[in-house]
Amino acid sequence: MIWGIVPLYFGLLVNELTSDKASFRTSLQTGFSFLWAGAQWLWPYFKLHKDGDPQLQLGAMLPINLLVTFLVLVAGVVALISGLRKKFPQHLRFIGHTRFANYFMITIFPIQAHYLAWTWERLLVIVLFAVPIWLLLHFGLMPLRNR
Predict the structure, then answer these.
(1) CA dist., res. 5 & res. 47, Å (int)
(2) What are the CA-CA distances from residue 14 to residues 53, 102, 111, 126 (Å)?
(3) For residue 55, which phi and psi values (nearest 5 degrees)?
(4) Is the pTM of this model over 0.90?
(5) Nearest-angstrom CA–CA distance, 57 and 87
(6) Helix, strand, coil fractions of the chain, as percent rounded to 5
(7) pLDDT for 81-131, tens place per residue?
């Protein structure tokens, strides 16, 4: 789990010191963070066959884990391509706000990595506390960003 979460924390700290505006550079950061987390969540489901070829076994994944992983991977690809092309798809400029994306990934990482199970209570806690904590980080670190 350390290989999955440490890059997300590092990305969050680096992003807190950069501009909060969506840009193509931040879109690349978002894409990398999303793809890294999605790959980390899929890794335990790759099994080696007798011939040595890896095979993905999604039957063991809970549907909610599979859906969240798929959405994160798709968002990562869209963000990465947007950053490389230097053009956001219509109505998807928000994909360049990497600060919130990293915080979101850190919040759900233990659940997606099966350290904790998805429950309604955990979903409620994420909804109730994720936004206030993100706002606290956003406004609390503004003096450092404006240097």
Answers:
(1) 22
(2) 37, 10, 24, 23
(3) -135, 135
(4) no
(5) 35
(6) 75, 5, 25
(7) 888 888 877 776 666 666 677 777 787 888 887 788 888 888 788 778 877
